[in-house]
């Protein structure tokens, strides 16, 4: 970045430029953008930060300015704030010193005038001004001051030239001239007298205006200065509180060593924790959110001890006492926690050895704001970004990771009770988010027609297929079937918006799970994913929202609530709670846990209204439950995962080359493969080539569709073809598919359960794989 030219400033100019500021002994001098305006010296990390984040401000009215050497100088306001600054040259340093001295003199003078105006001149608006009003007042003051100076100059000139004119006329009257000339001189004298009278009147009016303007100027300046100082004090207080909170967290983490199962989730990787060396006053990069503490919708208390003394043979008796249905809820307390037919008790020997490592992620630095600043408000899929922000997996492969804990569905398929089965299905919906906790990299946007197969029949009993069925709006269809009696299908479209400080990703579409033996059909939707600290700080991910898992055959329902993360909440972070109810709304199980660690269930023995009032004033439901049992627990990440994009054991195998897959499979995508190998520059070039190829194919497909629809318009190029990359759909699933593309393995039908149009697997892929016949597949790579 070239250095801006810095002319010697006028006393009222706003002065800006780059200086080097001393931070600490580790980082030394750091380049910062300084702005001198209205007697205040502020600094920012970059020019872009001027719109949202000020790193520090010092009032020059009470500051001392000292020169150390040819390039260094110090600004201090008496001990609380001291800036050690260094310019790039002696000339530049002198320009800054001149500007600072002028600004200091002006600020001191204004402060003195403000003090002289007395306490009774405090404006009514001082306590009500906002940032926009301060800016408006400041602009008005500058304009008014300039006009006052112009009037003062005109006043002096009129007085000077008026006196000279009067003297000249007086001298002419004393000269003996002809009668006609004397008459002319007399007329000129009269007009000059009238001009002098008028000018005096104007001068008096200007003098009154100047007096009034100066009085109001003092009041406005005092109000503005008071508002600015109050804002600075508030910013400093908030910054100190945030740093104290951070220091307490670090001190606690350093002084306490707990087993991983007993560590405090609010401290142990439950939020953005500052890295070592980030303790300087300006280098705290974490963004702090003051979220409202989550209010639970219900309260759980231990059940009466008589329920715990009952044996397993008496459970049905308890069910009858509580009015439960024997056919659906007579459940042994231990059956959820230990299923003898669970896949965990079986010895599964893989037919092939899967890889356990990929090349380490290169340490390439790139400024995200330089790319994202022009993308605010756009969909994530419409933002062209280099692979530096990606992970070497496609969105289709990320979608297949939902099957990471497939054994939960295996257990659910063996359940005799629909409510027990609901608990497993609900745990499965939560488990799909456990792989996202550290995964801040963006997956590759699949190309239209791209596929991904995950064949784990011999190892885990299931196989799945994903296909990108639409590009604008982007949508992927997924179908998985297991030999153990379940089928999972979904069509997911992503509506994502970049909001400056965070990125919201809203998955649209329903997920279906059908069990072959019981014919139970479950549906649910996904919650919103939020990526925080996009601009400044360490990226971290949160999941928030509510999910309703519905059994359409029995009417059973599980309502899950993902609580948004809050620094100041006393509750566990990333918390998930849920209640399993039957078709009559009666609660049978309470689920609790976190979406990144584990889920537990507790059987409800009794429920009643009472306890504390909820947020809406209604009484909360109190559930008496048995002791909680573990339902699902996250598998630890493989060793060295922090250097491998935080991939899980399954994720490490997803991009592993396999024989016999379709030519459209994500494993064969060249830019993704190059990124995995650490050749990011080549990957960026290849990514641009593939995207341009896709645009060309799309335009050709649109031309063919136009010729088929309207022969008279043959050869007409629609502007939409060139601008299709910028189109935005707020509701991709409802807006219809605009690609004029027919998927290979899925067909668009109306879902009989939800009534929504969706893509359902039509068959043929696995047969084509057995035959090795991929002639009908498009050439997308």
UniProtKB/TrEMBL annotation:
Q: Where is this region: Disordered?
A: 111-142, 256-285, 303-351, 660-722
Q: Which Pfam families match?
A: Oxysterol_BP, PH
Coiled-coil zones: 217-251
Keywords in alphabetical order, please.
Coiled coil, Lipid transport, Lipid-binding, Membrane, Phosphoprotein, Transport
Does the keyword Cell membrane belong to this entry?
Answer: no
Mode of membrane association: Peripheral membrane protein
Localization per Swiss-Prot or TrEMBL: Membrane
Q: Which residues lie in Basic and acidic residues bias regions?
A: 665-706
- Domain named PH: residues: 12-105
Q: Which Gene3D superfamilies does the UniProt record give?
A: 2.40.160.120, Pleckstrin-homology domain (PH domain)/Phosphotyrosine-binding domain (PTB)
- The UniProt regions of compositional bias labelled Polar residues, in chain numbering, are 127-142, 327-347
Q: State the Gene Ontology BP annotations.
A: lipid transport
- GO cellular component terms attached to this protein's record: cytosol; perinuclear endoplasmic reticulum; plasma membrane
One example GO MF annotation: sterol binding
Q: Which family does it belong to?
A: Belongs to the OSBP family.
Fetch the PANTHER family from UniProt.
Answer: OXYSTEROL-BINDING PROTEIN 1, OXYSTEROL-BINDING PROTEIN-RELATED
**Under what name is this protein listed?**
Oxysterol-binding protein
Question: What organism is recorded for this protein?
Answer: Cyprinus carpio carpio
Top-level taxonomy: Eukaryota, Metazoa, Chordata, Craniata, Vertebrata
